[in-house]
């Protein structure tokens, strides 16, 4: 497989940096081709603004989705964004790696998504009618490709379980897994999460590294999280409500959008 790893940590000598090396080495040992986008090292610009659309008339009102769609169609996006598009379209698998900061990804990685997931590529794709609501959630440009997260947390695993104070990790990661990766079509694999890392020592590292190597060995085979597909009957269109007969009666929240008994483990 061809694998793109997008790395969002400011320090190469960090635990995340060490885990990245483990992942890349194991993928290469398995015969995969790997490319890394190292956002801090590359000085990635994290905010979308006018500079993203060099052909926008001076003084014209910036409407980001419209400008993104026009620039993507015309091939006038900036070189850094186009380089990421080339890597994304090259890759059979996408890995986003980051420390959990304030319950989510570091701003630089969110900015990578905001700038790189362009209108016409990752959203605004496909027919909108009473039968379909765009190519998304199970369809889209990246359908048939795989994606997963590698995440480290300061909090303990118990803090992120069903009754933990932080809320379940699968709920916290739902906006990324479902809203960013599944949306443009990726099959999203269960995340690789390392908990309670701030007092990690060398002795703790090797078992985690081995668990990560094992996940890298199964990148092409592990079953994805069974999210429901949008255009195949589970949802009413255009309200996009899950049909009332599906899901547990009275159930609410993210787990409703899983097709099956439960979400794959972390
Ligand atoms: P580092 O700080 O680089 O390393 C962690 C430990 O691993 C160190 O003790 C280091 O010595 C050790 N280590 C062991 N082996 C190695 C090796 N081979 N190489 C390098 N280091 C090694 N946590 C939460 O749970 N929820 C949050 O919402 C949250 N929000 C945060 C917000 C901010 C702004 C910040 C700064 C932290 C937050 N945290 C949160 C904690 C954060 O998730 C952790 O600090 C982070 O995951 C640690 O990863 P790191 O790569 O930076 O680790």
From TrEMBL:
Residues 1-214 form the Flavodoxin-like fold domain. SUPFAM superfamilies: Flavoproteins. One of its GO terms (molecular function) is NAD(P)H dehydrogenase (quinone) activity. Keywords: Oxidoreductase. One of its GO terms (cellular component) is cytosol. Belongs to the NAD(P)H dehydrogenase (quinone) family. This is NAD(P)H-dependent oxidoreductase. It comes from Marilutibacter alkalisoli. The lineage of its organism: Bacteria, Pseudomonadati, Pseudomonadota, Gammaproteobacteria, Lysobacterales.
